[in-house]
Amino acid sequence: MIWANGNFQLLQDNYLFSTIARKVKDYQAAHPDADIIRLGIGDVTLPLPEAVLKAMHIAVDEMGRIETFKGYRSDAGYEFLRQAIADNDYKAVGASVDIDEIFISDGAKNDTANFTDVFDGGNVIAITDPVYPVYMDSNVIAGNGGKVQPDGKFTRIKLLPCTAESGFMPDLPRHKVDVIYLCSPNNPTGTVMDREALKMWVDYARRHGSLILFDSAYEAYIRDDSLPHSIYEIEGARDVAVEFRSFSKTAGFTGLRCSYTVVPREIKARVKEGGTASLNKMWARRQDTMFNGVPYIVQRGAEAVYTPEGQAQIKKNIDYYMRNAGDIRRCFENLGCLVFGGENAPYIWLKIPEGYSSWQYFDKLLAEHNIVGTPGSGFGACGEGYFRLTGFGSRENTMKAIERLKNGGK
Predict the structure, then answer these.
(1) Do 115 and 242 form a contact (C-beta atoms < 8 A)?
(2) What pLDDT is attached to residue 11?
(3) Each residue's pLDDT tens digit, 322-358
(4) What is the C-alpha to C-alpha distance for residues 164 and 370, in angstroms, rounded to an integer?
(5) Gap between the Cα atoms of 43 and 26, Å rounded
(6) Residue 152: what pLDDT?
(7) What's the pTM?
(8) What's the alpha-carbon Rg for the chain, to the nearest Å?
(9) How does DSSP assign 357-368, residue by residue?
(10) Residue 397 burial (C-beta neighbours within 10 Å; 0-12, 13-18, 19+)
(11) For residue 157, which of 336, 354, 318, 380 has the smallest C-alpha distance?
(12) What b/e readout covers 153-184, taking b as 16+ CB neighbours within 10 angstroms?
């Protein structure tokens, strides 16, 4: 019998969204006539933009001709897509990113998890609470958590509490940490870091030789022009920050899978054997070994996002989702709830009524209104007492959910 990775035993029994899916399935089986509206998992509902479809159709035809057929693809991604990203996502906002620092992948979720491969187990890792569960679970699986303490916390993972009193923004760690996970616009709270807050973290990382892993998968939803879309808009960030982005929520690629990670050449890490190593080269080597790249057809579709037609079409879709998010936010505000998000992010984070745990409120919404959301406790201890809803539902279902809440109360 083989030896298994015992770190899996340290995880919660079920991934948050798997638990939600099981509970909804059980409820549906017991109530087959229930019209359930799913506003929990952040999956999009609008079809792919026409510009993306057109580009993919052309790419499919190219795969059928010997002179344009593509076999194994570049592990880092085709240059046409990386150049479009460098020009439109970075140069356009005054940030400098070269194409050899951009790595095309099949999901920001995958990359934020897989980036643990470049870490040594001796790092102290800071993760906000509440937080997207993948950050925590991937480090535990990789053995980066250290020992489990009696309270269930890990010796090498330092949680940074984010509360309503701080606007769900994390404070700087009291002691030095090596790796820092930041997400802005934030999943689950929907809050966004301004330039001053990001500069504070960049300066901290530069002082302490720390690495920031910056998840900006929802940057396209920022409406306030004063807010940064990339951490590389902050001076000095190239020395200390890796950025993750995705086409999933921006352009509806949840079923296609395409994202990218930026690893600047400046970032170095210590190695036990002595000296330093380039994280850019390490990540390139990791991808060369473990990843064969995103399909050519999908990358052509992603490239089309940056055409004038593509930009207009994804803006229309984002406006659609943000209208949903804004209406959900106002609904709960009118019901007397304290609400975050829904203004520069597609997520609504609300304080649940007194007398309910977050899972009890999940059950209440499901049973009384046939609405599915996400319990805040699934994102960490500081998420208890809160609940996440998304603007990614259809307009029809979003308005139907709002009417149910108006008529039945919170």
Answers:
(1) yes
(2) 87
(3) 999 999 999 999 999 999 999 999 999 999 999 999 9
(4) 28
(5) 21
(6) 85
(7) 0.95
(8) 21
(9) -HHHHHHHHHHH
(10) middle
(11) 380
(12) ebebbbbbebeeeeebbbeebeeebbbbbbbb
